[in-house]
């Protein structure tokens, strides 16, 4: 059985990785499908997110990384997936996920959405919060893979010390 695990992954967290690990044990093949949608204004480019996911998920033999645009159910058909895998952390995720699952069922009745829960330790981790914490100088130890943390810090440092910013902050001699 082929499952797709779709998302924005901006960036990948240990919560995502935990779900990938769980999914890889249940399904024959798991395709991580990154949405190609520049309108979402992601911090990391699509290529960067693909790179990070490929590296972090390389330990799972039946997992591959791809990207898609358009309707998820259409993409699912092109890779012969019968399952959409989504993670639910807390009740607050449920309403959005239920709406999406039911809409996807309406659009593609042959595709089933399966929800899994990440380990409790990751139930409060989100890409949005992780980005905010790093931007504000806090620690995200244990919440994202090390390779993601390095890239995130480099990106945030680059934004803070961009030539434009530093030259405008420079004191007149
Ligand atoms: O990580 P995210 O941002 O919660 O993932 C959302 C995603 C990519 C799963 C969702 O936006 C999606 O499937 N987009 C593709 C367009 C689509 O099929 N829309 C109708 C879904 S109800």
Model description:
This protein is an alpha/beta fold. The chain is 46% helix and 17% strand. It has seven helices and five strands. It has helices at 14-26, 46-56, 72-78, 91-107, 127-135, 146-160, 163-169, and strands at 2-7, 29-35, 63-68, 83-87, 112-116. Strands 3-2-1-4-5 form a five-stranded parallel beta sheet, sandwiched between helices. Helix 1 (14-26) links the parallel strand 1 (2-7) and strand 2. The radius of gyration is 18 Å and the shape is globular. The relative contact order is 0.18. Mean pLDDT is 92; it is low at 165-173. The structure holds 4'-phosphopantetheine. 4'-phosphopantetheine is lined by residues 6-8, 35, 71-72, 100, 103-104. 4'-phosphopantetheine (PNS) is lined by residues 6-8, 35, 71-72, 100, 103-104.
Topology record:
Layout (H helix, E strand, L loop, with lengths): L1 E6 L6 H13 L2 E7 L10 H11 L6 E6 L3 H7 L4 E5 L3 H17 L4 E5 L10 H9 L10 H15 L2 H7 L4
Parallel strand pairs: 1-2, 1-4, 2-3, 4-5
Provide a compact summary of the structure.
With 173 residues, this protein is an alpha/beta fold. It is 46% helix and 17% strand.
- Outline: globular
What is the SS-derived class? alpha/beta
Strand content: 15-25%
Oligomer: single chain
How would you describe this structure in keywords?
173 residues; alpha/beta; 5 strands; 46% helix; binds 4'-phosphopantetheine
């Amino acid at each position: 059985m082929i499952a797709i695990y779709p998302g924005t992954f901006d960036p990948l967290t240990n919560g995502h990785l935990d779900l990938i690990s769980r999914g890889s044990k249940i399904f024959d093949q798991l395709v991580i499908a990154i949405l190609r949608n520049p309108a979402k204004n992601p911090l990391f480019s699509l290529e960067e997110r693909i790179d990070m996911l490929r590296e972090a998920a390389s330990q799972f033999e039946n997992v591959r990384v791809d990207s898609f645009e358009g309707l998820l159910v259409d993409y699912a058909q092109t890779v012969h997936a019968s399952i959409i895998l989504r993670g639910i952390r807390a009740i607050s995720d449920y309403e959005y996920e239920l709406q999406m699952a039911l809409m996807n069922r309406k659009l593609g009745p042959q595709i089933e959405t399966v929800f899994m829960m990440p380990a409790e330790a990751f139930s409060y981790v989100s890409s949005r919060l992780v980005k905010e914490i790093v931007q504000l100088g806090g620690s995200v130890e244990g919440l994202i893979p090390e390779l993601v943390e390095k890239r995130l810090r480099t990106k945030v440092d680059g934004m803070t010390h961009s030539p434009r910013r530093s030259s405008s902050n420079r004191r007149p001699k």
